[in-house]
Amino acid sequence: MGGTRLARVVAAHGRHCLVEDESGQRTLCHPRGKKSAVVVGDIVAWQPSGDEGSIERIETRRNLFYRQDEMRTKAFAANLDQVLILLAAEPVFSEAQLTRALLAAEAEGISACIVLNKQDLGGPFDQAWARLEPYRRMGTPVLPLGLHDGHGLDALRQRLTGRHTLVLGPSGVGKSTLVNRLVPEAGAQTGEISRALNTGRHTTTATTWYWLEPARESALIDSPGFQEFGLHHLEAERLAQLMPDLRAALGDCRFYNCTHRHEPGCGVRAHVGADPSVDPLAIDQNRYRLYDELFDELSNKRTY
Ligand SMILES: Nc1nc2c(ncn2[C@@H]2O[C@H](COP(=O)(O)OP(=O)(O)OP(=O)(O)O)[C@@H](O)[C@H]2O)c(=O)[nH]1
Ligand SMILES: [Zn+2]
After folding, report:
1. EngC GTPase domain spans which residues (predicted)?
2. Would residue 231 count as lying in a domain?
3. Contact 110, 65 (CB under 8 A)
4. What is the CA(233)–ligand 2 centre distance, in A?
5. 97, 147, 181, 220: residue to mutate for ligand 1 pocket, most atoms within 8 A of CB
6. Ligand nearest to the CA of 93
7. What average pLDDT score do residues 221-230 get?
8. Which residue owns the Cα nearest ligand 1 atom 26?
């Protein structure tokens, strides 16, 4: 159709968004009619009208990273290559929250990595690093980082190169420090987006797309909302498949529809609490407890 162009959504506020074309040109767009909301990372077909534009269509998404609680769904971003979960030696992180974010990524087929910041803190860092051992063992990359002294920054840059990465993390782990460290003109970009979308507030409250280099190949997508990570969109029966450590032990249960909670002859529970130096399929107690609790939560969810 004449006049329609493809572009990427680099910021969204309400139903309005900022799209960026291949040359890097950004345009404020509004949806035409009653269209479903766009998400950062969406590829859209849009049509210019004056200085602004209207969204005609959202291209099919490769994936959509989102959370869902009883009342609402929150989409973080679409078409991702990777989700990076930033944690730190302090504040002490919640394993439940970490596991939920990993599950949401796995359910959409998005690879995830964990980055542990504040390496300079010594003891607390070592304790946090030890808590992440089951995650390393199940194959999730875990990178040490010290944003204050630059430790591990090169390895992190390597992991981000050529990918579009959503960054998530609880408050206080150093997410703004990370963005400012990797995106030299982050402040300017944020200001430009705030002005364009007329939010009148700092866009740390909205999801924002940052390019890491002038060639615009690697991107960091900064998104708030790591708290209250609802997984109502997942079936309880799918959980074990989505947890790599449990998944590795599947196939040896007596019952084909085993929930791995109370059935006799369960091949998963046989590995819970085992010594990893003896049992390569050992499942960490905490991980199993999280599975058990989530199974309860997801099988008792109410639908409205
Ligand atoms: N010791 C230490 N402190 C760090 C490091 N990186 C960041 N911090 C500190 O951690 C605190 C939180 O950093 P921010 O970048 O504001 O963290 P944030 O994740 O954006 O936090 P919110 O703004 O609450 O979302 C600040 O006081 C930083 O100086 C580090 O490598 N070591
Ligand atoms: Zn079982």
Report:
1. 78-227
2. no
3. yes
4. 23
5. 147
6. 1
7. 85
8. 174
- Ligand 1 center to 253 CA (angstroms): 45
- The 10s digit of each residue's pLDDT in 169-193 is 999 999 999 999 999 777 767 777 7
List the domain range (segments joined by +) for residue 253: 236-299
Residue 209 CA to residue 8 CA, distance in Å, equals 10
Instruction: Measure the CA–CA gap between 135 and 217, rounded to whole angstroms.
Output: 29
In this predicted model, what pLDDT tens digit does every residue of 11-56 receive, in sequence order?
988 778 999 999 999 999 988 876 678 999 999 999 998 999 999 9
In this structure, the residue with its CA closest to atom 8 of ligand 1 is 174
ipTM of the complex: 0.97
What are 232-251's pLDDT values in tens digits? 999 999 999 999 999 999 99
Are both 11 and 116 inside the same structural domain?
A: no
Residue 128 belongs to domain with CATH number: 3.40.50.300
Among all ligands shown, which has an atom nearest to the Cα of 247? 2
89's tokens: 């030696």
Mean of the per-residue pLDDT values of the chain: 91
77 and 218 share one domain: yes
Ligand 1, residues at Cβ distance < 6 Å: 117-118, 120-121, 146-148, 169, 171-177
State which of 120, 173, 222 you would mutate to test the pocket of ligand 1, scoring each by most atoms of that ligand within 8 A of its C-beta.
173
| Pair 203, 97 in one domain | yes
Statement to judge: residues 77 and 211 lie in one domain: yes
| Structural domains in the chain (count) | 3
Other CB atoms within a 10 A radius of the CB of residue 180 amount to 14
Same domain, 109 and 155: yes
Residue 179 sits in the same domain as residue 121: yes
**Token match 């840059």: residue?**
157
Q: Is 199 exposed, middle or buried (0-12, 13-18, 19+ CB in 10 A)?
A: middle
Do 76 and 213 have their domain in common?
A: yes
